[in-house]
Amino acid sequence: MQAYVIRRILLLIPTFIILTMLVFLSVRLIPGDVVDATMAQLEFDMQDIDREKVERMLGLDKPIYVQYLNWVGGIVLEGTLGDSFMGSFKVEERIAGRFRVTLELGLISIIIALIIAIPVGIYSAVRQDTAGDYAGRSLAVLGLATPNFWLATIVLIYPAIWWAWAPPTDLVYFLDNPLKNIWLYTIPGLILGTAMSAGTMRMTRTMMLEVLRQDYIRTAWSKGLRERMIILRHVIRNALIPVVTLIGMQIPIIIGGSVIIENLFALPGLGRLAVNALIDRDYPVVSGVNLIFATLVMALNLAVDILYAFLDPRVQHGQ
Q1: pLDDT, tens digit (0-9, with 9 covering 90-100), for 26-73
Q2: How many helices (H) and strands (E) does the chain have?
Q3: Entry pTM
Q4: SS3 string of 182-195?
Q5: Contact 82, 288 (CB under 8 A)
Q6: Dihedral over Cα of 126, 129, 135, 138: its sign
Q7: CA distance 31 to 92
Q8: CB neighbours of residue 220 within 10 Å
């Protein structure tokens, strides 16, 4: 197990290097020029405008590879993501202030998705081809086919028109008021968790059916064991091994969806910060947020791989 974990961690090093290159270069391919935006702001403020001076001020007068090395060097040697182009603040400080919002939204979304998906998937498999099974499968297809942004828009618009009600948008931290905090994230979490629960439910049902057809399960039935004991002790653990991998693959969906949901529900998280930075062409902030998102996905995938190896010992031995 230890050797497997070490191998997986070492594989993250070249992945992280390639990741930094992609993050750094992709933001500079965005249409528009931060220098023009800065010059327009300076012109609005009635200050002298000099394009070369603005480029030197932003550090954009250097070759692209020098800018990249300076950025990576700041991350590795100084632990900083740089300074924002649009304000006198460190990028990591702004990200740290927004991270807890995105993290809580993501955790609540995953918890809601699993609470819905796992029981429904198990029930649909155990009661195959019943009315409950058809209802669960239909809901899964509906969840997969419904875009998060469309569902969020419906939730925001129609209750406001019909009942003059809107979801809460005032940020309340958990330690200040736990109930209001959970209520604040419940509706966005339900919307984000819908697509994830649909895919996870279908995978849970499929794997449960596959395990239920195994010979050792038939043997358990022939011994007269109770259904509850067979399902809980023999079926679920083996059936959920591939589901764990699917959950890890769907984490980027939660992270990507948070960008839209945070803006629609006015949640001051990393997704909203990234959108505002894109509008301002604030390269360091966009690069920093993307790097944090990508690193988070890598770390969660590593955790999923380790959990998978724990559930299935064959992985540790390369079988």
Answers
A1: 887 777 667 776 666 665 555 556 677 777 777 777 888 888 898 888
A2: 13, 0
A3: 0.80
A4: HHHHHHHHHHHHHH
A5: yes
A6: positive
A7: 25
A8: 19
